[in-house]
Design a protein that fits this description.
The complex is a heterodimer. In chain A, 43% of the residues lie in helices and 14% in strands. Chain A is of the alpha+beta class. Among the domains of chain A are: 49 residues, no CATH class; 88 residues, Gyrase A, domain 2 (2-Layer Sandwich), CATH 3.30.1360.40; 47 residues, DNA polymerase, domain 1 (Orthogonal Bundle). A four-stranded antiparallel β-sheet of chain A has the order 8-9-1-10. In chain A, helix 1 runs parallel beside helix 3, helix 4 packs across helix 13 and helix 5 runs antiparallel to helix 12. Chain A is flat and about 105 Å long. Chain B is α+β, with helices and mostly antiparallel strands. Chain B has five domains: 144 residues, RNA polymerase II, clamp domain (DNA Excision Repair, Uvrb, Chain A); 121 residues, no CATH class; 164 residues, Beta Barrel (Barwin-like endoglucanases); 122 residues, Orthogonal Bundle (Enzyme I, Chain A, domain 2); 150 residues, Topoisomerase I, Chain A, domain 4 (Orthogonal Bundle). Chain B is 39% helix and 14% strand. In chain B, strand 4 and strand 5 form a beta hairpin. The radius of gyration of chain B is 38 Å and the shape is globular. The chains are: A alpha+beta, B alpha+beta. Strand 11 of chain A pairs antiparallel with strand 1 of chain B, so a sheet runs across the interface.
Chain lengths: 383, 858
């Protein structure tokens, strides 16, 4: 009986969407007779056909309205404490704008790193977190002194701090040797002291001598570039590492990372590492997160459409005059958005033709717009 | 004679650059003198107001088309420039041409053998990205070859091209005059132009250096006559006057053989005037001004920005037959009706054509004239002439009225009108209503449709538009009528629903009222129910039974009410659960959604109207009011609340003590100070919730609570704040910060971190706030105010960008989603091709279908 019904349901596969098929599988009890099951499926099909979009429906505008209208109800407060211990994230309207703009640098880049089975005990997670955290030289120094007379910089290493990252003075010394070109490095008087001497001993190099101090502080001695903070948290019985700052490529390359679940909120990073389809999904996911956090309700179809329009060209484009709007074929549609004069002059040079196929152009010249009831037209046969 | 215009569909618009030849052939007149009018005030021939360019004075006739003011569209003219000048908007392109082409043979500076290779790359860049990108690429390619400093075609030496902004070019140190520029550009070959992405068939680069200047028609730069009889010219006319004046002087000086310096100076001046004529806001140039110092508004500014031609006049239209006034509520009119004041109905008209069958009917309107209400204002004769109906024309008009005439009659009950409230954020902001002419001066609307418009009655105004053609009216009726818009395309839930009293009334009715039979009949009658067969014939009736009398016989529904109890409606009988906001309100619950899908839009709209009326009628009979006594706590409750607050405060002080003793454990990733703040905030926020809960448990059942429980207005927190404790005030997710002086107010000690010093308000609104507490409350209040003020323009801009980017996406007949150029964006809309407004909360309710089929059998 069970099998029979399942095959019956699957036979509707080409006419119904996978989500509905799945729902039917779950909802239809296996005890039901075949005739009833068939009736149910036919009713579902009928309901689906009835709910199909009508051709000509301007779904773009509907989506824009559906997202724009609740936008007025969102908070402007940028920061949000997600629980007591978690990190600050951009939420609400600013985040929504950030996503749709496809900003190159976002306010609070983050990653959620999941580890593979067997690497995910609390201890392992903690060591992993420490491993990827970007550590700068400044964090393991106890003192820096600049000797102007001898043109020397001496560094006091805080061995205890260094050790917690698995480093000692000798290693740091070695690292500095490769990083600094204009200085020669040597072990200082005590074991935890490093001395830097300028190679070319010119007297007017004072400025450089001071400059090197700032440079030294920012030398990365450990971890991954960009990952400024790590925070292991527990989520439904699992340990997840939240990071502020992101470096998706390098993190995914690590063996212990579960690359299927690890993600970031930086769309550009995703596009660079995982490609455009992943970016589309990321846009949808991030947008849904923002909307749900605000307690609003927007159908996912609208968000999908926005994500699709941002990604159709194969490259991530923001909804700005430099992105999506620039892609439009109509000169007047572009001109009606921003910088009309510029658009008109460049299209004049290229000899562009506006075929008046979309909405604003036709509004401008008082003609019916080719959407909705303006779409169908009659062809008269002339005899 | 008014010209007969033939209307045709515009198929496409081509953009290109005007050639000098084209400008001359378009022109109706050559402009040679800066004078505008002669001594009689008549436009001078060959002046800027030449009557060949169109007329703006009543009585004058356009010499080109023989038409009068308002009929003539105007005609272009031109000026022959004494010396060529650069068109400011093309400076960048000219710069690119100079950099990338040879100064002697005009070929592009890429060797012949490589041109083919690059042309493909360049055109794809141009097509895929933009012309600017293509130019950038050309420049890059050329710089690669240019290193040799010689033309690969004719071996001529190439100098370095410099652009001194805004429009002076140098080759090495030699200044290139526009004459030289033009000669250079003339040499560029058509084939090479394609590499720049230019239309080489229709456009020549030398046209970017002007030799003749087009003069726009007089009609687009009309002068205004001031009260004193003085004429004030348009800014464009002013600017063109300058151009013509300098141009004439330059001609004279050249002809007289004046020294080169003088000619150069005049030439520069001409360049300046022509430049500012096109764009008066070039960074390096001082803007041209009126005598009074006011900056002239020239061509670019006319087009640009929100107030410019494009967004203000072309993309935004205005209509006749529209009205605007304050709105007020009327729960007794239908959901899809709008109350229109009689005074307005007399001005808003609908054209109706006289036929054999309605002649008598329409004649009555005409006879009543414009002043008596259901009358008529105008008639339109078959030849298109419009005649006003007035006392002295009445006889004549009634005499001549026959079939084929159109009568513009007053608005009547049942006419279709579009009703709108700004900001029009979604399509439900403009819906079609049926007109109901009422006394008074405001628009009346049913409070249930407030939500889609986001309207309230604190002085809101709304707009009404009356469609004038049959086509428009039927489209409005079929697609825009309120009942067709009940389900939001945003989430597939109902956007209309009962509000306020209507909810309270139904809540009380279904919760606790027991009515006698006559009372029930009275109640149902008052809300328009005439069929009482569904009301059980009993002496005492339960409120639920009265409510059920409204529902259709075969309606079955399972849901939840606001407090989580199950709502059961079986075969049109409400057996359990309460009718509150979760079921009757907008955007929540599926009761309305299910009614809609089972019984259709008309029925749902009507039923919702009845339900609302029932709720209000219940309150009218039962009585319902709120007073300050509703917020009183019973003595023992007050004691409990005070204890609860004291408890929380004690906890807070404990944390402070722990911190002072250095015993506070820092949370991971936080400093001890941050931890302290977080813990304090947590404890103090809990204080309000707890005391609120305590208070609510002990409070008497009263009107305020009923409203909060039913979801009609306010919530439990609001009541708690009023009667028990206002609570911690938070600013940007933290307690009130101490600022630079290390204390919030001078009333507190420096570095005081106690609850009271950081915005904890332990009084209730009713007991009254002390000055410090009041100030903290004002701080958060102000923050909220700022937030709204800043958010509105931001979200408005986001919305504008979204709608601009997506306006041309539509579903095609093959169910794909495409943009205007036919590019496929989605193969199936939303991956399953379902219209959200036709679904139940975004999907098909499989469960319900299953239950309907199986349920039948059992």
């Amino acid at each position: 009986m069970k099998k029979e019904i399942e095959t019956l349901i699957s036979s509707f596969k080409d006419r119904l969407s996978p989500t509905i098929i799945e729902k039917a599988m779950n909802e239809i009890p296996t005890t039901v007779s075949k005739k009833d099951a068939e009736e149910i499926m036919n009713l579902i099909l009928k309901a689906t056909v009835k709910a199909k979009v009508a051709p000509g429906e301007c779904v773009g505008l509907v989506s824009a309205e559906s997202i724009g209208e609740p936008g007025t109800q969102m908070t402007l407060n940028t920061f949000h404490f997600a629980g007591v211990a978690e990190m600050n994230v951009t939420v609400g309207l600013p985040r929504l704008i950030e996503i749709f703009d496809a900003r190159k640098t976002i306010k609070t880049p983050m990653m959620e790193i999941y580890l593979k089975e067997g690497h995910s005990s609390l201890e392992q997670v903690k060591t992993f977190a420490k491993k990827i955290k970007e550590t700068l030289l400044a964090e393991v120094l106890s003192d820096v002194s600049v000797d102007i007379l001898d043109q020397k910089v001496s560094l006091q290493i805080n061995e205890e701090a260094a050790k917690s990252y698995g480093h000692d003075t000798a290693q740091i010394l070695k690292l500095l040797k490769t990083k600094l070109k204009t200085f020669s490095t040597s072990q200082g008087e005590s074991s935890n002291e490093i001395e830097l001497t300028m190679k070319s001993a010119k007297t007017d190099n004072l400025k450089e001598l001071h400059g090197v101090k700032g440079k030294l502080m920012k030398i990365k001695i450990h971890g991954m570039k960009g990952i400024k903070q790590v925070l292991p948290v527990e989520r439904s019985g699992q340990y997840v590492i939240l990071t502020s700052g992101c470096n998706l490529k390098e993190v995914l390359e690590l063996d212990e990372v579960d690359s299927l679940r690890t993600s970031t909120n930086d769309l550009y990073e995703i596009e660079k590492v995982l490609g455009i389809e992943a970016t589309r999904n990321a846009i949808i996911e991030e947008t849904v997160k923002v909307i749900e956090a605000q307690g609003l309700n927007i159908d996912i179809r609208h968000i999908m459409l926005v994500a699709d329009i941002m990604c159709v060209t194969g490259v991530l484009k923001g909804i700005t005059r430099f992105g999506v709007v620039k892609e439009k074929s109509s000169v007047l549609a572009r001109a009606s958005f921003e910088t009309p004069v510029k658009h008109m002059f460049t299209s004049a040079m290229a000899g562009e033709v506006d075929k008046l196929q979309s909405v604003v152009e036709n509004v401008m010249i008082n003609q019916p717009v080719p959407v909705g009831t303006g779409l169908p037209s009659l062809i008269t046969k002339m005899k | 004679m008014r010209p007969q215009f033939i209307s045709k569909k515009v198929g496409s618009i081509k953009f290109r650059i005007l050639s000098p030849k084209m400008i001359k052939s378009m022109a109706a007149a050559k402009i040679v003198t800066p004078e505008l009018y002669d001594r009689e005030g008549y436009p001078v021939d060959g002046g800027l107001m030449d009557t060949r360019l169109g007329v703006i004075d009543p009585g004058l006739v356009c010499k080109t088309d023989g038409l009068r003011l308002k009929d003539t569209l105007g005609h272009f003219g031109y000026i022959e420039l004494a010396r060529p000048v650069i068109h400011i908007k093309f400076v960048k392109q000219v710069y690119d041409f100079l950099k990338c082409t040879c100064n002697s043979c005009g070929r592009i500076l890429i060797p012949q053998k490589d041109i083919k290779k690059f042309s493909e790359i360049l055109t794809t860049i141009g097509e895929e990205q933009s012309m600017q990108a293509q130019h950038r690429m050309v420049r890059e390619v050329v710089t690669k070859y240019k290193g040799k400093g010689k033309c690969p075609h004719c071996a001529a030496k190439q100098g370095k091209i410099k652009l001194e902004k805004p429009y002076t070019f140098y080759e090495e140190d030699h200044k290139l005059s526009p004459i030289e520029l033009r000669a250079w550009l003339e040499k560029i070959q058509d084939d090479d132009l394609q590499l720049f992405g230019m239309d080489s068939v229709a456009i020549r680069p030398e046209w970017m250096v002007l030799t003749v200047l087009q003069i726009p028609p007089v009609t687009m730069r009309p002068s205004i006559t001031l009260e004193s009889g003085e004429r004030s010219e348009d800014d464009l006319t002013h600017k063109l006057g300058d151009v013509v004046r300098i141009n004439q002087r330059l001609f004279e000086n050249i002809n007289a053989g004046a020294p080169e310096i003088i000619i150069e100076d005049l030439w520069d001046l001409l360049q300046y005037h022509v430049t500012t004529y096109f764009d008066n806001s070039i960074a390096q140039l001082p803007p041209a001004r009126h005598r009074g110092g006011q900056v002239l508004k020239t061509l670019t500014k006319r087009i640009k920005s929100k107030e410019g031609r494009i967004r203000h006049n072309l993309a935004g239209k205005r209509t006749d037959f529209s009205a605007r006034t304050v709105i007020s509520p009327d729960p007794l009119i239908g959901l899809n009706e709008v109350g229109v004041p009689e005074k307005m109905a007399k001005h808003l008209t609908i054209p109706e054509r006289i036929t054999e069958w309605n002649k008598e009917y329409l004649l009555e309107f005409v006879k009543r004239g414009p002043k008596v209400y259901p009358g008529a204002n105008y008639i339109i004769r078959p030849d298109g002439k419009r005649k006003a109906i007035a006392d002295f024309t009445m006889d004549e008009i009634t005499e001549e009225l026959t079939e084929g005439y159109i009568v513009e009659r007053h608005l009547l009950d049942g006419d279709i009108a579009l009703f709108n409230r700004q900001p029009s954020l979604h399509r439900m902001s403009m819906m079609a209503h049926k007109v109901r002419v009422l006394p008074g001066k405001t628009f009346r609307l049913n409070p249930s449709v407030c939500h889609p418009y986001n309207a309230d009655f604190d002085g809101d105004e709304m707009n009404l538009h009356v469609p004038q053609t049959e086509e428009a009216r039927s489209e409005a009726q079929v697609l825009m009528l309120v009942q067709t818009q009940l389900i939001s395309p945003r989430d597939g839930l109902s956007v209309v629903g009962s509000i306020h009293d209507a909810i309270t009334g139904n809540y009380l009715l279904t919760k606790e009222l027991i009515l006698s039979y006559p009372e029930s009949v009275d109640l149902l009658y008052s809300c328009g129910v005439e069929d009482l067969s569904r009301l059980p014939k009993k002496e005492k009736l339960d409120g639920k039974e009265v409510f059920s009398a409204l529902l259709p016989k075969d309606f079955t529904f399972y849901g939840k009410d606001k407090s989580g109890n199950q709502v059961k409606i079986i075969n049109g009988k409400l057996t359990s659960g309460l009718m509150d906001k979760a079921n009757l309100g907008e955007e929540s619950g599926l009761l309305l959604r299910n009614l809609y899908s089972q019984y259709g839009p008309e029925f749902t709209a009507e039923l919702l109207g009845k339900i609302s009326k029932l709720g209000i009628a219940v309150l009218l009979r039962r009585g319902f009011s709120i007073g300050i006594a509703d917020l009183d706590l019973m003595p023992q409750t007050a004691k409990l609340v005070a204890e609860s607050i004291e408890n929380s405060l004690q906890k807070a002080f404990n944390i402070i003590e722990q911190h002072a003793a250095g015993k506070l454990q820092a949370l991971p990733g936080r400093t001890v100070e941050e931890t302290l703040e977080l813990r304090m905030l947590e404890v103090l926020n809990k204080a309000r919730n707890k005391s609120g809960e305590v208070a609510m448990k002990q409070i008497k059942e009263n009107a305020a609570l009923v409203m909060a429980r039913s979801g009609a207005r306010g919530n439990i927190l609001n009541i708690a704040q009023m009667s028990a404790i206002t609570g911690q005030q938070a600013l940007r997710g933290r307690r009130i910060d101490h600022g630079f002086t290390n204390r919030t107010l001078s009333y507190f000690k420096v570095h005081d971190i106690s609850p009271a010093a950081r915005g904890f308000i332990k009084n209730s609104f009713k007991s009254g706030l002390n000055p410090a507490e009041f100030f903290f409350g004002a701080m958060t209040g102000r923050d909220a105010l700022m937030d709204t003020a800043l958010r509105t323009p931001k979200s408005g801009y986001l919305y504008r960008r979204l709608s601009n980017a997506m306006q041309d996406l539509k579903v095609e007949y093959d169910h794909t989603v495409r943009d205007a150029s036919g590019r496929i964006v989605q193969f199936q809309y939303g991956e399953d091709g379902l219209d959200v407004s036709k679904t139940k909360a975004g999907s098909i309710d499989v469960k319900e279908i299953v239950q309907a089929v199986i349920g039948e059998k059992q």
